[in-house]
Specification:
By secondary structure, the chain is mainly α. It has 5 helices and 2 strands; from the N terminus they run ββααααα.
Length: 102
């Protein structure tokens, strides 16, 4: 039996039911104009989960964008050591590479 994708809040903010992927994790992909197929290549999500997240964002736009603003502000004040930044940079490049596999 296939379960319908749903958004729940278990204390970390709105997230896909049965996963640890939050709406905030997916928001940058939507903002950048990624297609559902591109998002599914970058994140372990189904088309149904992507649609559920998109619908949640549309229905709670102000709340989601305010949370995004707060997260970005907080992250801008945090600094990582150069070793951590290098690891993060490598991981981002690897994820971007997965988006363009033939």
């Amino acid at each position: 039996m296939k379960l319908q994708a749903a958004i729940v809040d278990l204390g970390r903010g709105p997230q896909l039911a049965g996963t640890r992927i939050t709406v905030q994790n997916l928001l940058p992909y939507f903002q950048a104009g990624y297609s559902p197929e591109e998002i599914a290549q970058a994140m372990p999500v189904t088309p149904e989960e992507i649609a559920a997240a998109r619908q949640y964002i549309e229905e709670h736009r102000d709340e989601v964008l305010e949370a995004d603003r707060r997260i970005r502000k907080r992250n801008a004040t945090l600094g990582n050591e150069s070793e951590v930044e290098e690891i993060l940079c490598h991981a981002r490049a690897e994820r971007r590479g997965r988006l363009y596999l033939p």
